[in-house]
Specification:
With 473 residues, the chain is mainly alpha-helical. The protein has 20 helices and five strands. The N and C termini lie far apart (72 Å). The site of flavin-adenine dinucleotide (FAD) has 28 residues, from helix 9, helix 11, helix 14 and helix 16.
Length: 473
């Protein structure tokens, strides 16, 4: 009997899973395996919100496999290789299948495991399940990595076909193995009950991802280009955590939206381009991380290495993290993040800009906080987002463009719906004071809302001066 191990990692789905499909096609039995070895991810082991998600995503995948009379075999340890070797020995499996990951530590670990298994005569077959186009398959005319989004996207967009995704392999024949551990023993869930907001907000798993996509296609896709910047609206897909954990693939999303649009008459057909372009940013983030693997901690633009940061200020950082900066749009975002594990993209940019520019705290402080608190924490996208806002990234916002949180709130939350939702102290504050509560000391005193952490105008000028020093002006 020919048996294959299918190692699940960030591809926690049955449909459009090329490693699973290939293993099912080539072997009489497949044993799905998940190895929890967070140490292998180095300093970017999953944060608390990601661990919460992972627990529920694994539970959902187990349930789907059990419905099909199989199971997801769970193991844990410091090192995946000896565990894989043990499972191979116990089952007599003759090959290993997996879908590729793109983080530097994951690439190093996968490369070493592949070499060791091949040496002992076990072939490893790897596939792309996460991206439209793997980072090494796309290059500039000079055969170099892209550093600018627009030409990258033009190239990638021209390759997209809307090809149909793979169906879940059927019928599946599942292998069994002794020595597995129960999900609870991975200890992914928090010991204290801070996760109630996450539970209210999300349904991790393949089914949850499909439902989220349906909701988006029904309610928001048609208006995406306008509504995607309005944090009070449910104007975006909220698929980022599902994409990060591989509960859905970009190919599935593209195919479903394209097929649905084709069924509509031309007058009502939504324009998919603005949405596909955002998925393009995700691909660009992976392209950059692959070609510039030091960037999770090093400035992409090395000229920023001499930037005059203000020096770590724990009190400031604490206020920013806790949503007590006294800047309403930033605090609303940071509280949304704490409660739901997610923050609207527009607000992410504004909150990040306040930290890296007005407060001149190193962008890594923010990246690390997001890493711990976002359910969609993703090394590629988080690095790109922070470096873009800080001004030191590829194709970054110029440093001199400092987001004004008041102007941003007036423009994108003019009635203060989002602010009132997350800032109960200011729920009854009238406009326009809601956007600048410090202008009324009585309001501040009575509401208990904090005074601003910085003078926005002055701190902007200080940031610009630090930038001028860097340029030697
Ligand atoms: C400082 C900062 C940190 C960020 N950290 C992360 C992160 O850790 N993980 C993460 O997935 N995104 C991150 N983003 C990007 C973006 O904010 C989220 O992808 C988006 O808010 C997710 O919501 P959505 O699924 O509703 O997006 P939609 O608007 O529905 O977009 C669809 C998908 O496109 C991708 N996408 C959209 N915008 C971006 C972008 N700017 N960069 C990369 N991919 C994008 C996401 O996969 C998203 O799910 C960050 C942005 C900033 C400014």
């Amino acid at each position: 009997m020919s048996i294959a191990l299918v190692l699940f990692r960030r591809d926690l789905r049955l449909a459009d899973n090329p490693a699973l499909t290939a293993a099912c096609a080539a072997h009489e039995q497949v044993l799905p395996l998940y190895i929890h070895a967070p140490q292998e991810e180095g300093e970017w082991a999953p944060g608390a919100a990601s661990r919460w998600w992972l627990h529920h995503a694994l539970a959902a995948l187990q349930a789907r496999m059990r419905e099909r009379h199989g199971d997801l075999h769970l193991r844990q340890g410091d090192d995946s290789l000896p565990i894989l070797q043990d499972v191979l020995r116990r089952t007599g499996a003759s090959a290993v299948y997996w879908n590729r990951r793109y983080e530097p530590a994951a690439i190093a670990s996968d490369t070493a495991i592949k070499a060791a298994l091949r040496e002992q005569g076990v072939p490893v077959h790897s596939f792309n399940a996460a991206l439209w186009c793997e980072p090494w398959r796309i290059a500039t005319g000079q055969d170099a990595a892209y550093r600018v989004f627009t030409p990258f996207w033009r190239n990638l967009r021209s390759r997209l076909t809307g090809a149909a995704p793979l169906p879940p392999p059927s019928p599946l024949r599942w292998g069994q193995a002794a020595g597995g551990v129960p999900l609870a023993s991975l200890k992914l869930l928090p010991r204290t009950g801070w996760d109630s907001g996450l539970r209210e907000t999300w349904t991790p798993g393949e089914q949850g991802a499909q439902e989220m996509l349906e909701i988006f296609a029904d309610d928001a896709l048609g208006d995406y280009a306008q509504a995607r910047d309005l944090p009070a609206r449910r104007g975006t897909s909220r698929l980022s955590p599902h994409l990060h954990f591989g509960e859905i693939s970009p190919r599935q999303i593209h195919h479903m939206l394209h097929a649905r649009a084709q069924r509509m008459d031309a007058a009502r057909r939504p324009d998919l381009e603005p949405y596909l372009r955002e998925l393009g940013w995700r691909e660009f983030a992976h392209h950059l991380l692959y070609h510039f693997p030091a960037t999770p901690t090093a400035n992409f633009n090395a000229r920023f290495d001499g930037f005059r940061w203000a020096g770590t200020d724990d009190a400031l950082l604490q206020r920013w993290r806790q949503g007590c900066s006294g800047i309403p749009l930033v605090d609303a975002g940071m509280r949304e993040l704490w409660h739901t594990g997610w923050m609207h993209n527009r607000v992410r940019m504004v909150a990040a800009s306040l930290l890296a520019k007005n407060l001149r705290q190193h962008w890594l402080h923010g990246a690390r906080w997001f890493w711990d608190t976002l359910v969609d924490a993703d090394l590629a996208s988080n690095t790109l987002g922070w470096q873009w806002v800080a001004g030191c990234g590829a194709d970054a916002a110029p440093y001199f463009r400092v987001f004004n949180p008041v102007a941003q709130a007036r423009k994108f939350d003019p009635q203060g719906v989002y602010l009132r939702r997350w800032l109960p102290e200011l729920a009854h504050a009238p406009l326009p004071l809601l956007h600048e509560p410090w202008k009324d000391p009585v309001l501040l005193r009575h509401s208990g809302y904090p005074a601003p952490i910085a003078d926005l105008g002055q701190s902007r000028l200080q940031a610009l001066a630090a930038y001028r020093d860097l340029r030697g002006d």
